[in-house]
Structure formats: C-alpha cells, structure tokens
Amino acid sequence: MRGDQERIANRIQPLAGRSRERAVLAEALADARSGRARCVVVRGPGGVGKSRLLSEVTRHEHARTCTVLHVSCPDVTSPLRYDAVRALFEPLGLGADDVSDSAVRVLFPGRRAGAPHGNDHETLSGLRSLAANLMASAPLVLVVDDAHRCDEGSLRWLDFLLRRAADLPLLILLGHRCDDVDDTVRRALSRIVGQRASSVIQLAPLTRDEVGDIVATVFSAPPDSSFVDACARASGGNPSLLHRLLDDVRNAGIGPDAAGVLSVEAAEKGVLAASVLNRLAGQPRRVFDVAAALALLGPGAGAESVAALAAATRWQVGEALDVLRGCDIVAESGMDFAHASIRDAVLDAVPVSEADRLRAARILNDAGRPAVEVAQHLLALTELNQQWMAGVLRDAAALSEQRGELEIAVRYLRRVLDVETSGPQRIRVRGDLGRVLAQLDPYAALPIMRELLDRVADPDAYVSFVLNFAMTAVTAQRHPEAVRVLAEVLAMLATKDRGNASPAHRELCLSLESMLMIVGSAEKSTFSVVRDRIERRPLPAGSTPAERRTLAAIAFVHSLRCEPSAQVVAHARTALSFQTSDADPWSERCALFALHLADVTDDLLPAAQRSLDLVESMGASWDYSYSLSCYARVLLHFGDVREAAEQAQTAAKICAQTRGADSTSAQFTAWASALAELGQVEQADEVLDRIDREWFEEATLEWHYFLHTRARVRWIRGDRTAALELLLRCGRSMTDAGILNPVFAPWRTDAAWLLVGLGRRAEAVELVEQDAEAVHRWGTARAIGRHLMARGAVAENPSRAVDSLTEAVQVLSGSPAWLDEARAHHRLGEFLLRTDDTRGARKHLRRCIDLATLCGSRPIAESARALVVTAGGRVGQPLRSPVDLLTGSELRVATMAAAGASNRAIAEALFVTLRTVEAHLTNAYRKLRVSKRAELAAVLGGARTRLQHDEDEDEATFAGRP
Fold this sequence. Notes:
Layout: H1 4-12, H2 19-33, E1 38-44, H3 50-58, E2 67-72, H4 83-89, H5 101-107, H6 120-135, E3 140-145, H7 152-163, E4 170-177, H8 183-193, E5 198-202, H9 208-219, H10 225-235, H11 239-251, H12 261-280, H13 285-297, H14 303-310, H15 314-326, H16 340-349, H17 354-366, H18 371-379, H19 387-402, H20 406-419, H21 423-438, H22 442-455, H23 459-475, H24 479-496, H25 503-520, H26 524-536, H27 545-561, H28 565-575, H29 585-598, H30 601-618, H31 621-637, H32 641-656, H33 666-678, H34 681-689, H35 702-716, H36 720-737, H37 747-757, H38 761-778, H39 781-794, H40 798-812, H41 818-834, H42 838-855, H43 858-870, H44 888-898, H45 903-910, H46 914-928, H47 936-939, H48 946-958
Parallel strand pairs: 1-4, 1-5, 2-3, 3-4
Helix pairs in contact: 1-3, 5-6, 6-7, 7-8, 9-10, 9-11, 10-11, 10-12, 11-12, 12-16, 13-14, 13-15, 13-16, 14-15, 17-18, 18-19, 19-20, 20-21, 21-22, 21-23, 22-23, 23-24, 23-25, 24-25, 25-26, 25-27, 27-28, 27-29, 28-29, 29-30, 30-31, 31-32, 31-33, 32-33, 33-34, 33-35, 34-35, 35-36, 36-37, 37-38, ...
Domain HTH luxR-type: 879-944
Organism: Saccharopolyspora dendranthemae
Protein name: Regulatory LuxR family protein
C-alpha cells in the first residue's frame, strides 16, 4: 500500500522540526479535551511528512486520556461503503448488539445483508450516536490518514459529526495529498474545511533549520553547517528523502561534518534511484519504458509523444501511468512526476542511450515543442550531424538569452558551430557567441570578435560586429583598442559615401561616432581625442537614437570639462527623452552622470532607477553591478548614506562573483565611499585594498574616485598628511587629463582645509583661487557652497571666515547636497565657537547633527556632538525624519498645501505674500525630497520643535533657571 514506507519511518524516526505545526495540533487537542470540537486538515505533497505529523499527535501525553482511532485509507472500490468508518471502529471490538441498527448496516454489512438499508440520514445519525457514546467516557480523536483516498460516505459522516459536535470533546485529524484528490473527494473535504471548527495546515518542505534539527537528532551530535546545507539541498526539504539520505550516510560510517558533505551529494542520486527501482520492482518492462520516455520528454510532451518514444499504444501508456501513480512516481493528475527530483532518479535508474536522446529530440521537434526542450537532448549527443539541429540550437540560444540564461545560451551556440557548415551562417553564429559571451567573460569574447573583424565582408554586419567589439572592449578595460577600431570604421564609411550619404548612413556613422565618444571618454589617453571630436562637430538635435547618444556623450564630457551646467543639463535631458524601445544603458549612464554633477534631482533619481531596471532586465551581471554602483554614488551624492552603502555592497558582491571582477573598481570604490561616511573606515580601507586593476591609473572616473575616497578615509582616521598627498595626486592627474569640474572628486576644497590645518595657508589660498573660475562657470549651489567653505577656511580674518561660511550655509541650504550642508554648519559652528559665539555655534552644530544623522554620516555627527558639549549645550535627541528639518513656517505652509489649499489661499490665511509661500514650498520640497504637491501628505507627520526647545533649555540653564 502506498505510504507504508513513510509510516514505518514515522514509527522509527522521532519527529524533529515542524514546531509551529505541532503547536497547532497540540492546541487543537487541548481544545477537544476541554469540550470544544476541532478539526485539523494536514495537506501537502507526497513524502512531506503528513503521516509523521499525525502520528505525533497520537503519541502526545494528553492523547493518553483520549480514545484514539486511526485509519489509513485504502484504495476505494465503492464510494458509499463507509470503508474508513468501519476501519476506524474495528479496533474497539464492538458487537452488533452494541450499536444501533442503522450503524450495524455500516459496521457489520455481512451480518444483516437482507435488511433494508434505511435512509442516509438515519445511517449518519446512528454512527454519530456511537461516537457520542464514546465521548461520554473520554475525548475522541479520529485520525484519517491518506484522506485523498477516503470513500465519500466516510467523509460525509465526518462532516455530519463535526457539524453536530460543537460542545463535544472531539478532534478530527485528516491528512491528504494536495496533488492527488478527485473531484468527489475534493468537494467533501471542502465542506469539512469550510466549517468554523476546522483549520488547515499546509505542509511545506522543511526549512534549513528544521533539516538541521533532524540531522542533529539522527546523529545525536551537533552537525556542521555545511553538512546541513548539503542535506537541505539534496533532499529539497522532503522528510522521507532526507531520512533515506541520512540512513545511507550514517550506515557508511560518515559523520555530520564538513567531510560528509560530498557523501551526502553522492548519496542523493543513489537513494532516489534505489527508491525508484524498489517501487518498480516486479513491474512489466513496458512500465519502465514509459517511465523513461516521460522522464526524457518532460510533462508537456503529451501521451502521443510518450507512446512514440516508448514504442507503445496510447492505451498501454495510460495503463503504465496508472501503475506509476500507484508507485508514487507519477502525480495523480497530469503527466508529471510526483517530485521534481524523481525525474532525474528515473533517468539514473533506467538506462538511456544516445539513440534514445536523439529519438526524443526528433519527437519533441516534430511535435512543435519549445526549442529549449529539444536542445537539451542535442547537447547530450556526442555528434551533431543533421542540419535541422542547428536551427533548433540557435532558437534555443535566443530564448535562453531573452530569459537571462546566458551560460546556457553560450553552450547552445558553441554546439551550433559543431553542425553548421555554411560560412556566412558560421560568422553570424560566432558573432552571437561573442556578443553573449561578452556579458559573462569579456576577455574570452574579445579573441572571437577580433577574428570576426578580419573575416566579415558584409558592411552592415561588419558595423554591427564593430559596435559589439567596442562595448566588449570597454568591459574588458581595452578602451584604446576600441577607439582605434571605431575610428578606422568611421574613416572607411566617410570615404565610401562622401557627399551622397543617405539618412540611414548618417545615422549609422553618428551611432559609431557616439560610441567612440563614450568609449574614449573613459580613459585619460583617449579623452583628448573625444574632446577634439566634440569641439569640431555641430550639436545634433536629438531626434534619433544616435543623436541622443551623441548628446549624452557631449553632456558627459562637457560636465567633466566644466562647461556651463545649464547647457550640460539641457543636453542630458534631451538624451534621456527616448522611447523604451530605444533604451541604451551607455547613453543613460553618461546623461545621468552629468545630471548627477549638476544636482538635478527631479530628473536624476527616477531616470537612475529606470536605467537600473533596464540593465537588470538584460541579465548581464557585470553591467547590472556597475549600474548599481552608479546609483549608489548618486544616493551618496544626495546624502542617503545608508541606502548608498547597501546598494554599493550589493553591487560589489555581484561583481565579485562575475568573471573579470579584478578589472573593475567602481563597485568597490562606491562601497568604500559610503562606508567611510558611515564611520566604518577600517572596512572601507579593506574594500579599497581589494581593487587590483590593470591600467587603473588611466581610468578617467574610477582612478580619481579611488584617490579621493582613499584620502577621505585617511582624513577620518586622522592621517592628514597622507590624505593631503592623495588629494594632490588626484589633482595632478585630473589636471593632466583636462578634467576641471570642481564637484567631481573635489580635491581642491578638501586639500585647502588640510593645508590650513597643517600650517600651509599660502598653498591653500592658491588652490582656492585656482578653483574660482571653474566654480563660477559650473555655477551649481554645491560648487559655490563648497568654494565658500574653502574661502572660509583660508581666511585669516575670523569675521571674514564667518561671513564666507554663513554664505556657504545659505547657498547649500537651497541644494540637495545634505552632507555638504552638514559640513558647512559644522565648520561655521566651529568658527563661531572660536569667536566665543556659543549660542550661534550650538545652533549650527545642532543643525549639522540633524542633517548628518538623517544622512547616516557618523563621523560628521559625532564631531558636531563633541563641539556642542564644548559650547555648553545639550545634544538632545536626533531627528527622526526629514520633516523635523522644516522650519515652523515651512511646516505650516506644507501642511496646508498637503490638505489641498492653493498657494493664494495659504498666503491669505497666513497674511504673507504669494512669493513667500512659493519659497517655503520650494524649501519644503527640497528638505522632504519630494517633487510635487501630491507627495506631501505621505511624508508629513508632526511639527519640528525640538531644536528651539533645546535652545530654550540651554538659555534657561545659563540664566540659572530650572
């Protein structure tokens, strides 16, 4: 009988895990003992442990005072025979005189064969009376296992009994397989489950911790973590399979340690295969053939395909499937195996030849099944020698690429080359192979692409291969080579159709040129080439994809060159105005970088998230991790340090798992930058030490980000000399490359502060003056604010220093640069403290603490707290949300706006001008980081009064008042 092995295991193995489920059953048993009827239905797939869980209840200490009747349902031959009821009451040894006549007809059908059956209600009532009599002396527990095979009459009686036993000491426990229920039984079970007294336990596979509990119980020793992981993987959380695995491993004399991991993995297939062979023992050969055919073809193949592969009729296939269902190999419904792992076990247990694989591939292909189902059989063949196979493998590769299964796509494409004989087709396949492989291992893809460049004759195909080669070369840090190839192709196209170029040809040339600009701007050795090309060409309108990509490259280069930010933002916005079908990660990154430096939050944050989603959907791990690091740097730029650290850490982890991870630095530099602001400087140093990149000093962005981040870490750790040296090195490299933007890696303003601290004021003044022209040209609040902070640092006159720092605070308070604003408040507070303006110092230092705390910058916040105490103030509680940053007037205006009042209505109610309302709303939007009126209500939540309260307490303290 099915389930016998599981029930034997239940009696042998103690139950481990399932603590929540056992608690539910224990509670139901307690309710029944107290006189409140309960029913618990335990359901799940075969082998998940239903029988073991039900038997646990019968062993419960409280069950000893109950009448426990247990049945495991056999196969049903007549739906109204009350087989389960008869088996339940049989152990009581009742005689015909002990029950009513209506119950006798059910319990002793042979005793009164000639008696009339009576009506159904009378029969159900007679059986209920029998149960009630039993409950008069002790609580009654009825356990029906394998209820999916229970006869309908018994289930109807259980439903009848439960409805009439609300105040009786009754517990009904039903266990059934959720994938093995016919419609009649399903309806009967649904009526029982629908009652108020019923509850359902859906048994899922064991959790990893529950697997660990079982391993510890079986071995009577604490298991190694890796051993538990291996058991969880091998068993899939299936208790029956887990116990078989553990028995095999233990019988082999192996313990639950790290050395036993390989034994578990080796035992998995053997246990399953042996289990399948045991269940099939004695069955006709036809059953083996059908099982093997179903395993080869898969559940979607259909009975006709299985019959063709097994060389059987459809009737024979149906008969064999019934046998396989009876052996718990095939699920009760459909044509799939009872468990996913059984398919592999069948293939291991039943020999399958290459001829079988080839026949399976042909049958699936002729039946029109998806190419990936056919291709998996072709991959297993030693030789591919038929032309139809190439088409199937190409289709399977394309589908796998769409799904993001790039490694599988590469395997398919490599096998296409084993069978494809056409020269042009082989070139096309190798091009696809290089393009897909480039997303996994660009270093392995480059030789394939180089070879294609020498062999392709078709101009259109050549240009496509050149673009793919250029993008791969960028990923592999081979920028100069990509620039050289792109320049050669552009020169060739320019001489080919000079003076008679079609719009399509111009678009093609511009697409190549824009890619050259993007690729070439990534390294210092080619940055000047790109800069010269941009200066020579007119600005495109941005009406085609190639024109938008060109504008993105121009925005990127101009932002580094420090052209006026308004122009750069206009180019970047046009570059981002594309349709979804034209989405281009390269263009987006360049445009987003320019908006990032220009502090354009409204466009930047949504576009950055959209770009991230786009790259993620493409399935390329390295590209996704790089985009994620760019997004983290944007978040850090705007002061969201915690989220930036989380995103950058994820980017670094993904990068570390991809090939060629040692050729990159963006992910680790972004992570280290966020860690430094969090105050985790030792970890930041360790992360930076992981970077071991070839030609690192040639990188336009990452080399300078690296130097600036390392300097920041050294500064926080107190090594100002080393920090200054790194900043000056960064500055020399940027100057040599022609990078002038004062916001990107702002080495001059940081170096000025360090020089003043080291007593080298004259050098600091010179650096600040050198920065003035670029600051004026870029013109953003962040650039101006940082420059004013540096002017304050180098000023010899304290009052001039305070004036510059005060102006810096005012300028930065209108920007999204929260961390820079926090630094400005910190430095102003520090200078005010030197001039004995303790009240002013406390005010700005507290604002610094608020901003730094909200951003997550521990070093800035801790330094400001120490200065507040020096200034004689209380530190107070940190801000809980950005709402606390609003002034009283800003909060009132924002609250009224969130409630739906117009600007004019707010002005009239508060007796202020319309311009004042607009200014307050603008400040509120910035501080709350929202972009429109509709978002205010979601973030507002209470007035900010703590700062003023702290000031009042300070003044009261100095005045001697309580």
